[in-house]
Write a structure and sequence with these properties.
alpha+beta, globular, eight-stranded mixed sheet, 22 strands
């Protein structure tokens, strides 16, 4: 007789999703698309009010969720991610994000041959995408092996340059207009919310702390409380001449999808598992002729340096960025302590996003300009049209963190840790989060996304696909000579 899977727990009467980035929006979509949650009240707490799109401006500038463009690839060293990304790509190709949002220009994935970072990751990715596409070493229609730097320059077409000693191009990868895709996800949620029986509330504001209460032991209801339960969050009052009182937001299940800001809510238990790291992005304004020459090139990503360029959209803004170890921004913060002592504050050493998200350290300017010179040597030098910091929610291994917090039963689920590669999963990630909510997430993803033991001391994300140096701190780098570039 075949063992039947255990019955699903009853759906929560109310769910609070804190954060409206990739993890939060995708989870909301999955919940609203499931008949199982038709009577569940769903609240979405969004940290910023939407603003109109304008050039390089983004709705929530410091976060990793929104930008002019994001890479969409199934090129992963771990098969579970490659498979999940391929399923997301199928939906992107079907205009999941709206017409004209996804662009399949290809991805030129390269590294240096010095045995350093990135080389093993690219080799494993090549094996996985070949398996996904049923191609062989001799196949070139989809996956094209590039054994030399000259071959890299050849496939980069109008760019005229390249980066890396070897690699391959996957013509079934590309990029997506990230902000337009987020706007489409919001529209989808609003359409589903209109007919959701349980009700949907979208609130703009910030969570100042988690709320909790003590629960009695399941085996003895009259016993002393043995486990605390998260009951929601306290909404911080908006800044105003006459501040209003803080407002509690209660729910049976709270889902933290707060990205790089999550350590502010769980400073102690997350320190070994997640930290905020700042990554650098710059934009060059191209002329119409330059945009025409570069509009059809593949995305170029060198995994040894972390430097990459994404083809320009119709606005003509060429994006140059680094997927690296990033900067930490250590902060000795006094924050409400819900983990140890209710009603008290605690001091915690955590890395948090910087208040200034448009100014880059001088070493970043040098690295970004050098990348342009290497990849597009014919492009006349010019000042960047805009720069910004993008704050990742990094984990030690680069794996997502999607699991119940072990101290709070089934009242708090953490869904974050995008580590700079989460956006492409926007169409499918929420379904996996809901599987974790229901206790039925299986396979390799269940292991990769588990709470785990974390890592002690100071650590940096070691997923095998980061470039740049380790150990940089944002304020220190900003204080070096030439910071005001």
């Amino acid at each position: 007789m075949t063992d039947l899977p255990p019955p699903l727990p009853p759906p929560p009467s109310s769910i609070l999703i804190v954060g409206a980035g990739v993890f939060g929006l995708s989870t909301a979509l999955a919940l609203l698309s499931s008949a199982r949650y038709s009577e569940t009240r769903i609240t979405i707490l969004d940290s910023r009010t939407p603003t109109p799109r304008s050039g390089a401006e983004v709705r929530n500038p410091p976060t990793a969720s929104i930008d002019s463009s994001r890479i969409v690839r199934a090129d992963y060293a771990i098969p579970a991610y490659a498979s999940l990304a391929a399923s997301a790509q199928t939906l992107w190709r079907q205009n999941w994000g709206g017409p004209g949002v996804y662009h399949e220009n290809g991805l030129c994935f390269t590294s240096h041959r010095n045995g350093g970072g990135g080389e093993g990751y690219v080799r494993s990715s090549l094996e996985n995408v070949r398996a996904l596409n049923n191609t062989t070493d001799a196949s070139t229609d989809i996956i094209e092996y590039l054994p030399t730097a000259a071959e890299i320059k050849r496939v980069m077409k109008g760019a005229g340059g390249g980066s890396g000693d070897w690699g391959y191009v996957n013509w079934r990868s590309g990029w997506v207009d990230a902000e337009a895709a987020v706007e489409e996800a919001r529209r989808k949620i609003q359409a589903l919310a209109a007919t959701h029986s349980g009700g949907v509330e979208w609130i703009y504001g910030n969570a100042s702390r988690l709320l909790h209460s003590a629960s009695p032991s399941p085996s003895s209801p009259s016993a002393q409380p043995t486990q605390r339960t998260i009951t929601g969050v306290l909404l911080a009052p908006p800044p105003s001449p006459s501040p209003s009182p803080s407002r509690p937001l209660h729910a049976s299940l709270t889902i933290l999808a707060t990205g790089a800001y999550t350590p502010l809510l769980l400073p102690h238990s997350l320190s070994p598992r997640l930290t905020a790291t700042g990554q650098v992005i710059a934009y060059l304004q191209l002329t119409p002729a330059e945009r025409a020459q570069l509009g059809s090139i593949p995305v170029l990503l060198n995994e040894s340096t972390g430097m990459f360029i994404i083809p320009p959209p119709p606005s003509g803004l060429l994006k140059i960025a680094r997927h690296g170890f990033g900067y930490r921004n250590p902060t000795r913060a006094r924050i409400p302590d819900c983990e140890h002592h209710a009603g008290r504050t605690t001091r915690a050493d955590i890395s948090v996003p910087s208040a200034d998200y448009t100014t880059l350290p001088p070493e970043a300017h040098r690295a970004l300009h050098a990348a342009v010179e290497e990849m597009i040597p014919w492009l006349p030098s010019r000042a960047f049209a805009a720069t910004r910091m993008c704050w990742y929610a990094d984990t030690p291994t680069g794996d997502f963190l999607v699991d119940y917090h072990p101290s709070y039963g089934r009242s708090l689920l953490v869904a974050t840790g995008g580590s700079g590669h989460g956006f492409k999963f926007l169409p499918v990630l929420g379904a996996k989060v809901v599987e974790r909510v229901e206790g039925r997430l299986g396979g390799e993803l269940a292991r990769l996304w588990a709470w785990g033991t974390g890592r002690g001391g100071e650590w940096w994300c070691e997923e095998g696909s980061r470039g740049g140096g380790r150990g940089m701190r944002y304020e220190e780098e900003m204080g070096r000579r030439g910071a005001k570039l």
